[in-house]
Design brief:
Length: 166
Amino acid sequence: MQKDALAGAHPGSELVTLLVGAVRGISQVFTDRMTAAGFDDVRPTHGFALTLVGEHGTTATELGRRLGMTKQSAGEVVTHLARQGYVERQPDPEDRRARRITLTVRGRDCVQIIWAELADIQGAWSGAVGDDGLEELTAGLRKGLRTLRDGGQIPEGLRQAWWWYA
């Protein structure tokens, strides 16, 4: 990247600008690869949701907590995934009021592709910054997330999400 590419950015915003750019780039690569693999209706949020359903399923409330979103937003994600044949809702054997969300065969196939694509994307980053650079980046982000979470600088709903505990 050219040094002047961020010339219009406010001083002190480079980290945020670079993180947003990385996330957007990774999201687009992920979406393109899922489309190429025959899963053109799976966006990053859907992919993460599918990986968090788990082997034994989950509820929309728990999935929302894991994703750091409201139960209603998680319900919309689940509805999309159910319509596309990735998950199904079943009665929860432990709570008659709840519905358990489980992966279908298509959902399990998709999750395998997701993990492979995410590993490949991470490998590309490792190739770009080196193994040591990737380890330093990962460790720095992990430390920063923990420190910000523990300092109360992360909104409560997001502090509950699984990825803040990395």
